[in-house]
Amino acid sequence: MRWEEEGMKQNAFIMGNKLMGSNPHAFSLIMPSIPITHTQTPYVTGTSVLGIKYKDGVLIAADTAGSYGSTTRYKSVERLRPIGQNTLVGATGEMSDFQTILQILDRLIITNAMFDDDNTLGPPDIHSYLNRVMYNQRNKLDPFWNTLMLGGVKNGVKYLGNVTMLGLHYVDDHVATGFGIHLAQPIFRNEWNEDMTLEQGTKLLEKCMLVLFYRDRSAINKMQIANITEDGVKISEPYALQTKWDYEAFSNPTVGNEGSW
Amino acid sequence: MSSIGTGYDLSVTTFSPDGRVFQIEYANKAIDNSGTVVGIKCKDGVVLGVEKLIPSKMLLEGSNRRIHAVHKHAGMAVAGLAADGRQIVGRARSEASQYLSFYGEDIPIKELCDRVAHYVHLCTLYWWLRPFGSAAILGGYDRDGPQLYMIEPSGVAYRYFGAAVGKGRQAAKTAIEKLKLLEMTCREGIIAVAKIIYEVHDEAKDKAFELELSWVCDESNKQHQRVPADLLEEAKVAAKAAKDALDEDEGMDAD
Fold it and tell me: Which keywords does this Swiss-Prot/TrEMBL entry list (chain A) (predicted)?
């Protein structure tokens, strides 16, 4: 039970403090039998993020749900955020870790701006930085429980990639996180092409978001799409997709199999 | 009035019989020898300008910046010993960054000024430290609007609507007093500051100088930034023209 875990951690901490003072590392070197543990379970989570490159830039979509286990607790969570002028970050997983990451990135952008040398951080730079942050946290056995998607356009170069909580990072023409990997990426592989227009790209993303809404229990029908072009980042207001529930099979579900659900 | 503080000027922890701390006064002398730094608070923002004296032709244009961004919404122009100035700016930056991490909002300019002044004052309290040989003119824009402060080596910091330090400060202050700052926008302020700096620059004693201008105003989205290149050029042209006109007048008077 979670409460018991907490109790044990507290006892370990108190004992550790009494024996070795408040430096946790000193304690673990001498007595490895009571290890330092970090939170390994996420609490408020966001589900999939989808991203594709299109003719003029990058499109990234995510819904606005923050689930607390099986409950859809928060329905207006902004999981897509602009970083600097040219980049957008989207997050799956623990939302509090995402907020911390946003603060870290904010500090990075400000520090860079203070050099005042007409040099701004672009998507590849932020990608590399996030990768380092995630990997180093993982090495401390205290990961940020997120899969982050990064997209942007700078100097005509379109960029789209992911960073996982293990610190794995990669780029591609179309990426997804969470359930999107299993439900949306196959659709991308079939239907994506390099010269999609904004309308075509939006349609493709909406199609995949609809599939996710039907099939992913943590998804809700309230999503945002972000469009990143050379001119900057534009995140849409949240909107809902048209859904269809009046299938015949739904009206009489137990036909041919009486007695089932 | 400069007096020799024989015996009472060896340490910053010694008062003279007439209640002065000579080391701090000597620190001010370091600033008096540096290029003029001017700051004005206009209707919609703050403009900072520096007469950056160029000691050698080998220096790359635009290097050795004297105006530094402290945070998104604030900037500092330093006069006096450049290395001391960098320390002060570094401290201001870390105070601003820490405040943001702790309180989740940008540091109010008054608070930033207080912290920097506190730090500068600290270095006048111990015999193993020396006072900073630089003054910082801090300009920023927060919830209470645009504000201009100046922090001196003694650790005092006042809020100003117009401030100047360095070689040409007397002439600069006179010129600032003539300006109608309450009605001036930053666009006009840039031209005014450029004119003042060109005016106080002593052609005879110091050869070349570079003008550095920065602003925080509504037009720059309340962010501190170097004045855009085209506006900087405009200001330089106007200032040069004004200076030439002034020289002509003086030439005529000489006849």
Answer: Cytoplasm, Nucleus, Proteasome
**What average pLDDT does this structure show over A244-260?**
81
**DSSP code per residue over A79-112:** -EEEETTTEEEEEEEEHHHHHHHHHHHHHHHHHH
Q: Tell me, what amino acid is at B181? A: L
How far, CA to CA in Å, does A113 sit from each of A83, A128, B68, B130, B232? 12, 18, 11, 31, 20
In angstroms, the separation between the Cα of residue A202 and the nearest Cα of chain B is: 32
In DSSP terms, B213 is beta-bridged to B49
The C-alpha torsion from B14 through B15 and B16 to B20, rounded to 10°, is 130
Q: How large is the ipTM? A: 0.84
pTM of the model as a whole: 0.84
pLDDT digits (tens, 9 = 90+) for B54-82: 988 899 988 889 999 999 999 999 999 99
Query: What one-character-per-residue DSSP string does A64-75 give?
Result: --EEETTEEEES
Contact A107 B100 (CB under 8 A): yes
What does the pLDDT look like over B120-177, one tens digit per residue?
999 999 999 999 999 999 999 999 999 999 999 999 999 999 999 999 999 999 999 9
- Amino acid present at A166: L
Q: How far apart are the C-alpha atoms of B66 and B89, rounded to whole Å?
A: 10
Q: For residue B194, give the nearest of B225, B238, B139 by alpha carbon.
A: B238
Of B27, B3, B37, B67, nearest to B215 (Cα)?
B67
Token couple for B91? 């401290």
What distance in Å separates the CA atoms of residue B158 and residue B185, rounded to the nearest whole number? 23
